[in-house]
Design a protein that fits this description.
The structure is a single chain. By secondary structure, the chain is of the alpha+beta class. It folds into three domains: 214 residues, Phosphoenolpyruvate Carboxykinase, domain 1, CATH 3.40.449; 273 residues, Alpha-Beta Complex (Phosphoenolpyruvate Carboxykinase, domain 3), CATH 3.90.228; 82 residues, Phosphoenolpyruvate Carboxykinase, domain 2 (Beta Complex). Helix content is 29%, strand content 21%. The longest helix is centred in the C-terminal third of the chain and has 18 residues. It starts with 19 loop residues before the first strand and ends with a helix. The N terminus is likely disordered. The protein binds oxalic acid and manganese (II) ion. Manganese (II) ion (MN) binds next to loops.
Length: 617
């Protein structure tokens, strides 16, 4: 893949495109791309909306949509003194998380999607959903959202057009993507855009389908208004469809944050990190270092908190990355001035809050916002909530997966390269999970192949970001299990092959902030103190820090990692880092589940890495 600025994007300054409702007769005139106009016409015929509303992503348009949303009950305007430009939304209580069991990859045959995806035969998928879409927008408005994923002008930036009957989705997509003229300009007269059709339908889980048609660059989502199911630029396009395209075209779409660490000498190192959903990617991406680090001149900046697209730069042979998104869709509970002050600033204005608790005066609250809960509020289910009710029934004020949607421009530590089409060089890749046992704080892979193995074996204890049981270890290769848009065998092979096209590859690490002692207490303070681990990682990327070789990889000893001022004696650190033979055996047995699940699909290099680990043991 060559890196040239996308030639199809003319200089900005052209007249702003139309925004608002329009009669169907004006479709061909208002939609500048003939392929898009034709496809939209087909969708109108199928869904039969009462009204069409073309969005251009402007601030003025967002105001209009919020006013509409407040009038029809989609939004509540929050106290504008406390929360300027912020709105509140409560979803249907059956629709609060991604629904992986209702998410499908639709292709002609099952081999393309492999053992980890739900498969639907493509023609059948279209037929089934066509039946649901037929007339689904009667009495509703179809919002037409042209958007770009990726900095404008980036060789990887991709155009999508989403058609949705959800005003909530329309406004969220304005925050999460680059919307409007930029999309039409990048698209020009091409047919190359992702066709995203979305309807909330009747929000019935029995009629909920999130279908991807990678061979047609198409996404059809029905029956859910939840972010990951409905903001189709995010998980559906930027991960599932993009991972498929990346495999075909030689680049990578990954479920990773991307951050810069500037050292006191001014040298900036970018690292990407894959943690499964709700393991603190947003917190890590916006980390505030301990005072002694900031005093010394360390600075952390955010490029992205959830998704990266990476390619090999032809000239340098090095990996570069962009964040395809323009906003954050972050988990709210637990966020406060201490755990993530930068996220608090991000959401302080022009943001949407979904499924937190609403106070009578237009303020909001969530578990972990403050020690003192409000005396009374309306909770995420729309029910009266008091601390006493919570004690008696266990009811939460905010749903554990309640979210904020905030423009990334709000981020006080936004990296200066976040909008740069050329992206940033990636020096290190970190894999990490939420593991109470068996897995040390940090170690480094011996080499890229071993790193791919560590990523492939990634496991994490489940959280509330997806529906299903909470607290069991789930193998989540590269944190991508729910997002690989094709056969996981080919995905692993793609990762291994990327090594061949890189002259110099990023160093690969594994971290675990969540290890607990026998009393169930966390062994590492986490949050800002993770800077100490990051510093070691950054130094390792430049061949500067020490480590010793162990069975699992390169590990720092207590003297190699800065523990100064932590109140952690070297023995406690060694305990945090040590993995006994029994623990390692139990870990290897735990990985067995993934090998069995993939059965014949596991590439032989992965089996070889496992054999090597067992022989070292
Ligand atoms: C997310 C997720 O919302 O991974 O980012 O579930
Ligand atoms: Mn995510």
């Amino acid at each position: 893949m060559t890196l040239t600025t996308n030639p199809k994007v003319p200089a900005a300054g052209a007249k702003a495109s139309f925004s608002g409702a329009f009669p169907v007769e004006r479709l061909a005139e208002l939609i500048p791309n003939p392929f898009a106009a034709k496809w939209i016409a087909e969708c109108i015929e199928l869904c039969k909306p009462d009204e069409l509303y073309l969005c251009n992503g402007s601030i003025e348009e967002r105001e209009r949509l919020y006013a509409r949303g407040c009038a029809d009950g989609t939004f509540v305007k929050l106290d504008q003194k406390k929360w300027p430009g912020c709105y509140y939304h409560r979803s249907n209580s059956n629709d609060v998380a991604r629904t992986e069991h209702l998410t499908y990859i639709c292709t002609p045959g099952p081999d393309m999607v492999g053992p980890t995806n739900n498969w639907m035969e493509a023609k059948q998928g279209y037929a089934k959903l066509r039946g649901l879409y037929d007339g689904c927008m009667r009495g509703r408005t179809m919002f037409i959202l042209p958007f770009v994923m990726g900095p404008i002008g980036s060789p990887l930036a991709k155009v999508g057009v989403e058609l949705t009957d959800s005003l909530y989705v329309a406004v969220n997509m304005q925050i999460m993507t680059r919307m409007g003229d930029v999309a039409w300009r990048q698209l020009g007269s091409d047919d190359e855009f992702t066709r995203c059709l979305h309807s909330v339908g009747d929000v019935n889980p029995d009629r909920r389908y999130i279908c991807h048609f990678p061979l047609d660059n198409t996404i059809w989502s029905f029956g859910s208004g939840y972010g990951g199911n409905a903001l189709l630029g995010k998980k559906c396009l930027a991960l599932r469809i993009a991972s498929f395209l990346g495999q075909q075209q030689g680049w990578m779409a990954e479920h990773m944050l991307l951050m810069g660490a500037t050292a006191p000498d001014g040298k900036k190192t970018y690292v990407a990190a894959a943690f499964p959903s709700a393991c603190g990617k947003t917190n890590f991406a916006m980390l505030i270092p301990p005072k002694k680090y900031t005093d010394a001149g360390w600075k952390i900046t955010t490029v992205g908190d959830d998704i990266v697209w990476m390619w090999v730069d032809k000239d340098s042979g090095k990996l570069r990355a962009i964040n395809p998104e323009a906003g954050y869709f972050g988990v709210v509970p637990g966020t406060n001035e201490k755990t993530n002050p930068n996220a608090m600033v991000c959401m302080a204005k022009d943001s949407i809050f979904t499924n937190v608790a609403l106070l009578p005066d237009g303020d909001i609250w969530w578990e972990g916002k403050s020690k003192e809960p409000p005396a009374e509020c309306v909770n995420w289910e729309g029910k009266k909530w008091t601390p006493e009710i919570a004690r008696q029934t266990g009811a939460k004020a905010a749903h554990p997966n309640s979210r904020f949607t905030a423009p990334m421009a709000n981020n006080p530590v936004l990296d200066e390269m976040a909008n740069d089409p050329a992206g940033v060089p990636v020096a290190g890749i970190i894999f990490g999970g939420r593991r109470s046992k068996n897995v040390p704080l940090v170690y480094q892979a011996f080499n890229w192949m071993h790193g791919v193995y560590l990523g492939a074996m990634l496991g994490s204890e489940t959280t509330a970001a997806a529906t299903g049981a909470v607290g069991v270890v789930r193998r989540d290769p590269m944190a991508m299990l729910p997002f690989i848009g094709y056969n996981i065998r080919d995905y692993f092979i793609h990762w291994m092959r990327m090594r061949k096209v890189m002259k110099d590859c990023p160093r690969v690490f594994h971290v675990n902030w969540f290890r607990q002692n026998d009393d169930g207490e966390f062994m590492w303070p986490g949050f800002g103190e993770n800077m100490r681990v990051l510093k070691w990682i950054v130094d390792r990327c430049h061949g500067k820090a020490y480590a010793v070789e162990s069975i699992i990889g390169w590990v720092p000893l207590a003297k190699d990692l800065d523990l100064d001022g932590l109140n952690m004696p070297p023995e406690a650190f060694e305990k945090l880092q040590s993995v006994s033979g029994d623990e390692l055996k139990s870990e290897i047995l735990g990985q067995e589940e993934l090998f069995l699940k993939l059965a014949g699909e596991m590439p032989k290099e992965m089996i070889f890495q496992r054999e090597l680990l067992i022989s070292r043991l």
